[in-house]
Amino acid sequence: MADIKINAITGMNNISSSFFKDDGVASPRVVRNADITVDGKATKRDGTQVFLALPGAHSLWACDLCMLCSAYGRLYDISTGEAVDVGGVSGVQTEKLDYVLIEGLVYISNKYWNRVYHPATQVLSDWGILPPSGPILSAGAGGLQPGTYHVTLTTIDQGKISGNGPISSITLDAVGGIGIYSRPANTLVWATDQDGYVFTLVGDVDSIVEIPTVEPLPSFMCSPPPPLTCITYAFGRVWGVDGDTLLYSEPYQPGYFKPISNRFKFNSPITLVAHISTGIFVGMKDRTIFLAGTEPEKMSQVLAGAGSVKGTLAYCDNLPELGDVLGTPEKGYTDVPVWRTVDGIVAGNVSGRLFNLTKNKINMNAADVGASLYRQTSGGFQFLTSSKVSDTVSCDQWRNGVLL
Fold first, then answer.
1. How far is CA 65 from CA 68, 81, 235, 256, 268, in A?
2. Comparison of pLDDT for 138 and 327, the residue scoring more
3. Which tens digit of pLDDT belongs to each residue from 12-70?
4. Which residue, 204, 233, 193, is CA-closest to 98?
5. pLDDT digits (tens, 9 = 90+) for 329-353
6. Is the pLDDT of residue 219 over 70?
7. Which residues lie below 8 Å from residue 268, measured CB to CB, with a gap of 6+?
């Protein structure tokens, strides 16, 4: 039998039936237990070893401060190689968690539950502060002029305030004041001037005899976020998904959301949210939209490409082989969003378009959900993606042990 001369391998290609792409350049239908370098060399994959035995573990995520995962309704920090139980996760135990690092704190959420993790102390806290109940008002003595006044309360916790609770109103028919009955502890009083609508700080008081107008209420109509999926941090705001709606926080205030007004509503469940320097990609099963711009009020919607697969997003560096297609000025192309769509693996560029990295090379069956990560190993960089549904050729090869 004559020798088969292979000078280079271009990676998998299960679309073309030809093994050789050019003279001495091979495109196997399946590449198993090997990595292909940028210069076309095949290298054997390194073996793996168990880092930590934790049955039922999922939602692995890491930063410079911690390494987190969940198992059987508990959240664990495994950065030391041991599973440190830091608290419970309510809801469906297998529901994937999403994480965002903001100023040394890790914001965690899925569709049932959310919390904030403090790596320095390995404790969880609430995400945002719940508003108090509305005040019960009565007329009293004071120097307020006749008119209608509106009063609301905020909770204060370690120097931070909540959004306002329900608003109560009272009309004074003569000069007087406003009494507040059974005001909860750790609350501040905010009120409008007579027949006004701007709430300003009155203080930690049980009666209002005058209305200072120096400090307006900064968290008016704000509340902590509901449980969200696909959370990300971009342009000073937290973005997250509630069904078919993309919500976003107030600027630089992760605990202040306005679900009624601060949102983009789509007509399909959202599967993915990816940020880039010029906007945000919003993926759904049937399409992916690009929200162009960095200020929500000025964003415009542009069709970017095919439907996106939930859970497959990873941010990648070092993509110089793509040339100028990404349109980024950075030499190493840092923090490029890469994920899986129904048409293959794509990278999002600053123009709001999807560059298909596997087009005409790999046919992947449609999947509803998957997982991805970006890593550096053996001097190279890899984007790894997986799902229960893969391409038919690879599945048959794994099941039957036959190379095609």
1. 10, 14, 22, 25, 36
2. 138
3. 666 556 655 666 666 666 666 667 666 666 677 777 788 899 999 999 999 999 999 99
4. 233
5. 544 467 899 999 988 899 998 889 9
6. yes
7. 244, 284, 285, 286, 287
pLDDT of res. 403: 46
CA-CA distances (angstroms) from residue 360 to 13, 15, 120, 158, 246?
8, 7, 48, 57, 33
pLDDT of residue 46: 74
Please tell me the pTM assigned to this model.
Answer: 0.86
Structure tokens at 304: 């970017």
Average pLDDT score over the chain: 87
d(CA 235, CA 264): 16
The residue written with tokens 């937290």 in the block is 238
Please report, as a single letter, which amino acid is at residue 370: G
Longest dimension (CA), the chain: 108
pLDDT-based confidence at residue 404 (cuts at 50, 70, 90): very low
Check: CB of residue 291 under 8 Å from CB of residue 264.
Answer: yes
260-290 pLDDT, tens digit each: 999 999 999 999 999 999 999 999 999 999 9
Q: Write down how long the chain is.
A: 404
